Amino acid sequence: QLACPLDLGCHSVSASVMTTHIKFEVFGKVQGVFFRKYTQKRAQELHLVGWCMNTPQDTVTGEAQGPRPAIEEFIHWLSHVGSPKSRITKCDISERRDDIPSLSFAQFDVRK
């Protein structure tokens, strides 16, 4: 069992849980509202790794990797919650791979 720190409010995750990789793009009012910072915070709370960044099309795009249940929670957050001042109209998952052999990132970063 891999234990989550108690201060993050998450639950223990079995080491045999499938690791999932997603590429995402979030549409709506997601720039200039601290969306990337809140995305990084939520990813860290869920013990996910990856990155996010603003695009010239006024969206936020990125990749995330981690246990499938945490990825599902993250997708829900990206689709329906976001930062307090954001207004999400759509979240596209353009790629999803389950059971990836290893993580490609060491942490979750906000890219410029």
What does this molecule look like?
The protein is α+β, with helices and mostly antiparallel strands and 112 residues long. It has helices at 35-45, 68-80; strands at 19-29, 49-54, 60-67, 87-98, 108-110. Residues 1-15 have low confidence and may be disordered.
H/E element string?
EHEEHEE
Helix content: 10-25%
Number of strands: 5
Task: Please state roughly what percent of the residues sit in beta strands, choosing from under 5%, 5-15%, 15-25%, 25-35%, 35-45% or over 45%.
Answer: 35-45%
Please count the helical segments. Answer: 2
Terminal-residue CA separation: 35 Å
Give the averaged pLDDT, no decimals.
88
Q: Main beta sheet, described? A: 5 strands, mixed
- Coarse structural class: alpha+beta
Task: Evaluate the radius of gyration.
Answer: 14 Å
Low-confidence stretches at least 5 residues in length (pLDDT < 50)?
A: 1-15
Shape: globular
User: Strand order within the widest sheet?
Assistant: 4-1-3-2-5
Descriptive key words:
112 residues, alpha+beta, five-stranded mixed beta sheet, 2 helices, 5 strands, globular, disordered N terminus
Write the layout of secondary structure elements.
Layout: E1 19-29, H1 35-45, E2 49-54, E3 60-67, H2 68-80, E4 87-98, E5 108-110
Parallel strand pairs: 2-5
Antiparallel strand pairs: 1-3, 1-4, 2-3
